[in-house]
Amino acid sequence: MRSLPLTAIQSEFSIMERMFEQDVIPTCEELGIGFVPFSPLGNGFLSGKIQAGTEFVGFDARRVITRFNKDNIQANQPLLDLLTRFAELKGTTPAQISLAWMLHKQEFIVPIPGSRKLERIEENLGAADIELTDDEYHQLENELAKIVIHGNRRDEDLAKLRDLK
């Protein structure tokens, strides 16, 4: 039987969804496997552009992801407040801080933020120019550890999407 080398793993990972830090990311590091996070901006939440009154229409998956109901958007506001404070200190955006945090974490982590607008693509690319010092990164990590994320992640709610009309 012939085996094929595993060169990369793709899964959801962001400041909001960090469960892979426990086992998967350390294993990737140990085995020299790349980690390619999708939804590194938490389906747009980490951009800071989604408010408690934001309505999602049509086949938008955020209609069924509980992180995007009004109460959870409000409950997760401390995370956006933290990102906004760091963004103001660095002269950047909350989305760029989110991506810079991920890029600082490990070299083998290469996020793939999705976007439909040129200005968002340019903003995302700009995150590569944001340097977090080790002190800033550790300060951000310490503050993140105090924040509880409310609502389910994408995989737990997408089965409900087929019921949308």
Overview of this structure, please?
With 165 residues, this protein is mostly helical. Helices cover 39% and strands 6% of the residues. Strands 1-2 form a two-stranded parallel sheet. α3 (77-90) crosses α4 (94-105). The chain is globular. The termini are far apart.
Notable characteristics:
mainly alpha, 7 helices, 2 strands, single chain, two-stranded parallel ribbon, 165 residues
Outline the fold blueprint:
Blueprint lengths: L7 E5 L11 H8 L2 E5 L31 H6 L1 H14 L3 H12 L12 H9 L7 H11 L9 H4 L8
Parallel strand pairs: 1-2
Helix pairs in contact: 3-4
> In terms of per-residue confidence, which ranges show pLDDT below 50 for 5 or more consecutive residues?
none
From the spread of the alpha carbons, the general shape counts as globular
Radius of gyration over alpha carbons?
16 Å
Strand content: 5-15%
Biggest beta sheet summary: 2 strands, parallel
How many helical stretches? 7
What is the ordering of alpha helices and beta strands? EHEHHHHHH
Determine the structural class based on helices, strands and strand pairing: mainly alpha
Name the helicity range.
25-40%
Describe what is shown at a glance.
The chain is mainly α and 165 residues long. It has helices at 24-31, 70-75, 77-90, 94-105, 118-126, 134-144, 154-157, and strands at 8-12, 34-38.
